Amino acid sequence: MTEKKVRAYTNIALIKYWGKRNEELILPTSSSLSLTLDAFYTETSVSFNADVDQDTFYLNDHLQDTAATQKVSRFLQLFREPAGISSSALIKSTNFVPTAAGLASSASGMAALAGAANLASGLDLNPRDLSLVARRGSGSATRSIYGGFVEWQMGTTSADSYAVPIDDASWDIGMVVVVVNHHEKSISSREGMKNTVATSPFYAGWLESTAKDLIEIKEAIRLQDFQKLGEITESNGMKMHGTMLGANPPLSYWEPDSVVAMQLVRQLRKEGIPCYFTMDAGPNVKVLCRLSDSAKIKTRFAEVFQNDQLIVAKPGPGLQVLTSN
Ligand code: FM0
After folding, report:
1. Domain 3-170 adopts which CATH fold?
2. If you average pLDDT over residues 269-281, what whole number do you get?
3. How many angstroms is it from 272 CA to the middle of ligand 1?
4. What does the pLDDT look like over 53-88, one tens digit per residue?
5. What CA–CA distance (Å, rounded) separates 295 from 208?
6. Which of 3.30.70.890, 3.40.50.460, 3.40.50.1220, 3.40.50.1110 is the CATH number of 174-313?
7. Which residue would you say has higher pLDDT here, 222 or 4?
8. Quick one: pLDDT band at residue 49, thresholds 50, 70, 90?
9. For ligand 1, mutation pick of 11, 16, 17, 187 (most atoms within 8 Å of CB)
10. Ligand 1 atom closest to the CA of 16, numbered from 1
11. Residue 231: helix, strand or coil by DSSP?
12. What is the mean pLDDT of residues 3-30?
C-alpha cells in the first residue's frame, strides 16, 4: 500500500512571535516573519483507516505516551470534525535533524502533522487555510506551510490569522546554526511568553517596536538589502530577549557559549564579513549570512565550537507531499 507522507521544514523567526492574545486559539499579540530552512524537517503520515482502536502516535519509531498522544489527538479533531471522521488514527512522525542538534521544533512537527491530516481527512484545505489550522497546533507552525520568507499576519480574528509567503529567498541568503546546547529547554516558549505578556513592563514597548521592525524588514527583503535585513533581525531578537528579562521572575535562555557566539558574530562584522545573530527560546545562536560567506563563517566558528555544533542551512521550501511504499 502506498502511504503519503508530508514533509515540513522548520523556520527561524527574524521578527519574533512572543505572546498570545488568545491562548486557546493561538492568536498572537503581533505579526512575525521568518525564514524557512532546508536543514531541519519533519515527515509525518496520518491514517484514519488503520486498524487501531485509539489514536496511536509514533515519533522516531517510538510509541509515545498518553500526554504526547493527547496533544496530537486534540489537534486531529480540527480535521476529523469538519470531515465527519470518527475513527482513530495512526500517526507516524520522524524528525530529521542533524545529530546532536536538538533543534526538533514544534514548527515543522505541527506543520507536517497538519499537512498529513489534511491529506488523510480529504479536507483538502488550501495552503492559507492549512496555515490557519496549523496555527492551532503551534504558533510558529503557521509559517512552516510556506518556503522562503514568510509573514504570519496577526489578523483580527481566528479567521484571518494565517501565513503569507513574502519572497522565495532564492538570493544569496543562509544561516549558520550554532548548537550551544541540545538539551530540552526548562521553560517552554508557551509558558515563557505567557509570563512575559503578564508581567514584563517592557511589553508595550516591544509591541510598538516590533510592528515598526516588520514594516522595515519587508522593505529590506523587497530591496534585497542584506545589511538592513540583518540589522533589523539582530535588533528584533535582542528586544524580545530584553522583554523576557523584564518578566517576573526574569527569564533568560542564554548560556555562556551563546554570548561567545554573539561576540564572534560582532568580531566577524568588524573584519568585514556581514553576518547577524538571532536567538529563540533556547541557548542556540542562528547566524544570518550570505550563503556565499557561510563556509568561511563556519570555519571561524570551528575554531571555538565543535564541528557537529555547526550546521549550515539554506532557505527551505514549503510543505511537500511524498509518496513511499
Ligand atoms: O518562532 O505556544 O510557536 O516567532 O521561536 O506553540 O504557539 O513554539 F523565540 C521564540 C515560538 C517562539 C519565536 O513559539 O509557541 C518565533 C519563538 P506556541 P512556539
Report:
1. Ribosomal Protein S5; domain 2 (3.30.230)
2. 97
3. 32
4. 999 999 999 999 999 999 999 999 999 999 999 999
5. 37
6. 3.30.70.890
7. 222
8. confident
9. 17
10. 4
11. helix
12. 96
The amino acid occupying position 98 is: P
What band does 101 get if pLDDT is binned at 50, 70 and 90? low
Pocket around ligand 1 at a 6 A CB cut-off? 13, 16-18, 26, 32, 106, 138-140, 189-190, 280-281
**SS3 label, residue 299:** helix
Q: Please report the pLDDT score of residue 111 as a whole number.
A: 98
Q: What is the pLDDT of residue 183?
A: 75
Which burial class, exposed, middle or buried, applies to 306 when counting CB atoms under 10 A from its CB (0-12, 13-18, 19+)? Answer: exposed
Is the omega angle on the peptide bond into residue 165 within 30 degrees of 0, that is, cis? Answer: no
Q: How far is the CA of 190 from the centre of ligand 1 (A)?
A: 7
Name the percent of the chain lying above pLDDT 90.
Answer: 91
Domains of the chain, residue spans: 3-170, 174-313
| pTM (global) more than 0.85 | yes
Q: Which residue's alpha carbon is at the smallest distance from atom 2 of ligand 1?
A: 190
CA neighbor of 32 nearest in space, from 212, 168, 214: 214
